[in-house]
Amino acid sequence: RRGASLTDLAEKIGVEAASLVQVLFHLGEMVTATQSVADDTLEVLGAELDYNIEVVSPEDEDRELLESFDLEFGEDIGDEDDLEARPPVVTVMGHVDHGKTKLLDALRNSNVQAREAGGITQAIGAYQVETEVDGNERKITFIDTPGHEAFTAMRARGAKSTDIAVLVVAADDGVMPQTIEALNHAKAADVPIVVAVNKVDKDTADPTRVRGQLSEFGLVPEEYGGDTQFVDVSAITGQGLENLLESIVLTADAALDLRANPDMPAQGVAIEAHLDKGRGPVATVLVHRGTLRIGESIVAGSAHGRVRALINDQGQNVDEAPPSMPVQVLGLTSVPGAGDNVLVVDDDRMARQIADKREARMRAAQQAKASRRKTLDQLFEQ
Ligand code: GTP
Ligand code: MG
Predict the structure, then answer these.
(1) Which residues contact 273 (CB under 8 A, 6 or more apart)?
(2) Across the strands, what pairs with 142?
(3) Which residues define the annotated binding site for GTP?
(4) Which residues, in sequence order, are bridge partners of residue 268?
(5) Whose CA is nearest to atom 29 of ligand 1?
(6) Mapping DSSP to helix (H, G, I), strand (E, B) and coil, where does residue 237 land?
(7) 155 lines ligand 1 (CB under 6 A)
(8) Spatial separation of the C-alpha atoms in residues 165 and 374, rounded to whole Å
(9) Which residue, 123, 90, 127, is CA-closest to 313?
(10) What tens digit of pLDDT does each residue of 226-237 get?
């Protein structure tokens, strides 16, 4: 296990921890019995003792932990017969200031952009928009991501928990470094991309140039014989917004099978979390499957609790959140990490047990990292 100590290992293979300390000493490593040991050291030790030591990845370890509670996180969206259509989850990505937040504001008649510090998005926001396509009411879930270069991890995460990526490129500015970065995240996550060429209201806008530039990166517009939809839009005048929504719905219907069973214990992912002065830990959760309800026991990463309130993207209290709906969840005992998985479990006790185990593991991993740094420092002192 990652972050294991020599005492842990000694117990596993039935030897004295002290002799392992000695073996390592002879190999030139000073490690105490209770200290957590780096993966490569464990492997060296294994080779020396003729043991095949495999270090379990954190993902595998978490899977095992959940399995021990008869739980599984991930792919299972329910039996074929119980599946119902769910809205597509669409992540809006692109270079800083190209108008992602403004575009979402225009789509949902809000004004998030004006409230942001310096007009720069620093956290992931999630919203639902309703639109009519071919006479049918359709919901789309949007995830806003920051374009500033400092937020690579957030963009990568955004691309992972999405069905479709909307790549926003300002028509006056053209393709820029984070445009390419976002494009690569979307490609790596293997999600279909719709390009929104924004700011076409500007005198200096050159939407044709954007098409040419992106073609060089493999996004060839349909009108040039490729298979990527490009939609010219303006978040200021509202031009093209209907077309953009339609393109998204068409892409979802053509390329994806978006269904989930709303009647199973909810699972999802925390896309953002923070500590609110008045309300305590608040996590924005995107539900993947099942329906999350008030009163349920949940575990979110190494946080746990009972759902005290659910708040939708309009700030209204709701009783439940079905698949693809982002909600703020109140009632956690601590703040989970962004990207942590969220599961409804049988009861508070189970939630706490899982959370405690994850917490202990995280601490061990941190310790292992710190002790590795220490050994390196000692090395340089000599
Ligand atoms: P980050 O989240 O920091 O990456 O920026 P962003 O992509 O969300 O850009 P944002 O929505 O904050 O817009 C940046 C600036 O561009 C703001 O001043 C907007 O008013 C302006 N803007 C956005 N869309 C348009 C548009 O369609 N036309 C014009 N003229 N200006 C726009
Ligand atoms: Mg923004």
Answers:
(1) 281, 282, 283, 284, 300, 303, 335, 336, 337, 338, 340
(2) 90, 127
(3) 94-101, 144-148, 198-201
(4) 287, 342
(5) 199
(6) coil
(7) no
(8) 42
(9) 127
(10) 999 999 999 999
* Rounded Cα distance, 207 and 212, in Å: 9
Is 120 close to ligand 1, i.e. is its CB under 6 Å away? yes
Atom from ligand 1 closest to the CA of residue 105: 11
By the 10 Å C-beta count (0-12 exposed, 13-18 middle, 19+ buried), 299 is classed as buried
Do the interacting molecules here have an ipTM over 0.90? yes
Single pTM value for the model: 0.83
Phi, psi angles (nearest 5°) of residue 9: -65, -45
Distance of CA 286 from the midpoint of ligand 2 (Å): 19
CA distance 149 to 257: 33
Distance of CA 32 to the CA centre of its chain: 37
Handedness of CA 170, 173, 174, 179 (dihedral sign): negative
The whole-number average pLDDT for the span 345-359 is 96
For residues 270 and 336, is the Cβ–Cβ distance under 8 A?
yes
- Ligand 1 and 102: CB distance under 6 A: yes
Radius of gyration of the chain measured on its C-alpha atoms:
24
Question: What ligand 1 atom has the least distance to the C-alpha of 106?
Answer: 24
Closest to 194 (Cα-Cα) out of 245, 144, 239: 245
Predicted confidence (pLDDT) per residue in 41-62, tens digit: 777 777 877 777 777 777 888 8
Q: What are residue 100's phi and psi, to 5 degrees?
A: -60, -50
For residues 343 and 289, the answer to whether their CB atoms sit within 8 Å is no
List, in order, residues 6 or more apart from 190 with CB less than 8 Å away: none
The reply to whether ligand 1 has any atom less than 6 angstroms from the CB of 96 is yes
Tell me the CA–centroid distance for residue 120 and ligand 2, in Å: 6
CB of 166 shorter than 6 A to ligand 1 = no
Contact 89, 285 (CB under 8 A): no
pLDDT tens digits along 309-320: 999 988 899 999
Give CA angle at 128 (124, 129), nearest 5°: 125
The helix (H) or strand (E) run that includes residue 284 is strand 280-289
Local structure of 233: helix, strand or coil = coil
Which of 91, 96, 97 has most ligand 1 atoms within 8 Å of its beta carbon, as the pocket-test mutant?
A: 97
